[in-house]
Amino acid sequence: MKVVILAGGKGTRISEESRLRPKPMVEIGGRPILWHIMRHYASYGFTEFVVCCGYKGHMIKEYFVNYYQHNSQLEIRLRDQNMQVLGASTEPWKVTLVDTGLETLTAGRILKARHYIGEEPFMLTYGDGVSDVDLHALIDFHKKQKKIVTISTTQPIGRFGALRLDEQTNQVLGFKEKAREDQAWVNMGFMVMQPEVYDYLGDGSMMLETAPFENLAADGQMAAYRHAGFWSPMDTVHDREYLEKLWIRGEAPWKV
Q: Which pLDDT tens digit goes with each residue over 145-195?
């Protein structure tokens, strides 16, 4: 099963980083977050990727074009520019990099990559979030549900505590840490899709998460796999610093 990764957005909420490079190329532990996501899929045996590029997509292409050399020991004779590979450590991945446009929305990116995805079930995720989700369990769940789309959902850990107030006097009665079970369920990516999903994408001029998903839900063709483990997006610099600290401390739950 192929893994499709949406990696074409501008990443405006993390503009401190994305003005220099596409958000999927922002590094955690010296590696692009895109690499971390792909490593997670590869650890479950999924090694064929279709990456939907857009904003600064040439940087993603250059990364993979030079991947072998960047991960090898090299001996270079500067006088004649002779290069010899002394030892290589690379990934057994097949990576298809598709230019899906600068302004294209997520539904359109999938349609533009359809030729490379094929008419078969595929997995889809965003190029800016990491998780320890069990992909085999996700696929088993998808097959049992027999829906066109299965999304992975989670209740993110609350970032703000809650106050208990007296409604009459406005007196503070106490504090409550925002528990995870108090949060709304959100789509964290890591989706599985049947090829029939193309019928819901229209002309590709919409965000996947709007009318296409709403219509799938209305038709009873969307299931939700509930994930109670780790998940974190990388929407802001604060998120990146949080993930970096987990990696440095050896506490990154997504680490293979």
A: 999 999 999 988 766 566 677 888 878 878 766 656 667 899 999 999 999
Tell me the β-bridge partners of 21.
none
Contact 215, 140 (CB under 8 A): no
pTM equals: 0.89
Name residue 192's beta-bridge partners: 123, 150
- DSSP letter at 203 equals T
- 66-107: pLDDT as tens digits: 888 777 777 888 888 887 877 667 789 999 999 999 999 999
**Dihedral angle of Cα 117, 68, 22, 41, to the nearest 10 degrees:** 50
Residue 69 CA: distances (Å) to CA of 22, 25, 26, 75: 21, 18, 20, 11
DSSP symbol at 103? S
- Residue 146: what are its φ and ψ, rounded to 5°? 55, 45
Residue 254: name the closest of 234, 236, 237, 231 by CA: 231
Which residue type does 247 have? W
Residue-wise burial string across 221-244, b where 16 or more C-beta atoms lie within 10 A, e elsewhere: bbbbbebeebbbbbeeeebbeebb
> How many whole angstroms separate alpha carbon 149 and alpha carbon 197?
7
CB-count burial class (<10 Å; 0-12, 13-18, 19+) for 187: middle
Contact in structure between 89 and 71 (CB atoms under 8 Å): yes
CA distance linking residue 7 with residue 60, whole number of Å: 9
Residue 208, CB-side half-sphere exposure with 13 Å CA sphere:
19
User: Percentages helix, strand, coil for the chain, rounded to the nearest 5?
Assistant: 35, 30, 40
Nearest residue to 91 (alpha-carbon basis) of 133, 36, 136, 24: 36
* Single-letter code of the amino acid located at 227: H
Amino acid at 18: S
